[in-house]
TrEMBL record:
This is TLC domain-containing protein. Its main location: membrane. The lineage of its organism: Eukaryota, Haptista, Haptophyta, Prymnesiophyceae, Prymnesiales. It comes from Haptolina ericina. It is found in: Membrane. One of its GO terms (molecular function) is sphingosine N-acyltransferase activity.
């Protein structure tokens, strides 16, 4: 078993990961990525794809290469801005702890990618080419078998190749860059399964149901939830420990995170 210490790309000392499990997941990931590129180069593209095999594979490589520095830039920028706001606006400075700051950076990246992908999916479904007629009818989605459906919109293929690139880079970052948590194995497995689903959906022409399903799959991450960083919301102000009404216990002191003179009846 591997015992991993604290820090980036590491776990807390009390968490153990089987070396066999880690090797199995990593090998499965690289084999899956190889299968994705082999399929693209072998011409396994949906009907109507405006890209050739080499162009599709090249576009996926370009997405992966562009995403790596983009992720680092977004995380570093959000960490700097979050740290600045934490120091000057919040009395307890929750992002002073490196663990909270890393979580905040990771969630900011998730917020950016989910928001941008949702915008692209909305554009594909409602704007590009006048929208999709089959979107409002479940029967229309399957009126033609996916094997014979023609997908000529460039934006649809852009979405799928970007999705594969995003999840490939996310899995690489999860495995080799990011701080490891207790759900490391679960999330790594999730990334592998997601890549496989997007790849199979694209290869076998299930683009209609895939595009409609992805629009509902992108949910806001916990960056908008102060509880993820040790904060609690109480009335009009944030407190690091909030005990209201019957939940109040003797000896528990409220620590305001936002300096404010406004009275807060809910926390009396």
């Amino acid at each position: 078993r591997l015992r991993l210490g604290t820090g980036r790309n590491q776990m807390s000392p009390s968490v153990f990961v089987s070396a066999r499990t880690d090797t199995l997941l990593t090998s499965s990931f690289f084999l899956l990525v190889a299968a994705v590129f082999a399929t693209l180069l072998g011409g396994g593209l949906p009907r109507g794809c405006p890209l050739g095999p080499a162009a599709a594979a090249g576009y996926l490589v370009a997405c992966c290469l562009a995403l790596m520095p983009t992720i680092m830039l977004i995380k570093r920028t959000s960490g700097w801005l979050g740290g600045l706001a934490s120091r000057h606006l919040l009395a307890s400075q929750p992002l002073r702890k490196m663990r909270n700051r890393v979580k905040f950076e990771d969630q900011c990246w998730q917020l950016v990618i989910h928001s941008s992908m949702t915008a692209l999916e909305v554009y594909i479904l409602f704007v590009d080419g006048g929208g999709e007629d089959w979107l409002h009818s479940f029967r229309a989605i399957w009126s033609e078998h996916p094997d014979v459906q023609v997908h000529s919109k460039s934006s649809v293929h852009l979405l799928y190749l970007m999705q594969m690139g995003i999840w490939i880079v996310t899995a690489l970052s999860h495995r080799f860059v990011e701080e490891r948590h207790k759900d490391y194995v679960l999330m790594f497995s999730h990334h592998i399964v997601t890549i496989m689903l997007v790849w199979l959906s694209y290869t076998y022409g299930f683009l209609r149901i895939g595009t409609a399903g992805e629009r509902h799959a992108h949910k806001p991450p916990s960056v908008l939830q102060p509880q993820a960083y040790g904060m609690r919301v109480c009335g009009r102000r944030l407190t690091s420990m909030c005990h209201c009404g019957q939940d109040s216990r003797p000896g528990m002191r409220q620590i305001p995170l936002v300096r404010s003179r406004l009275p807060d009846p809910a926390c009396q």
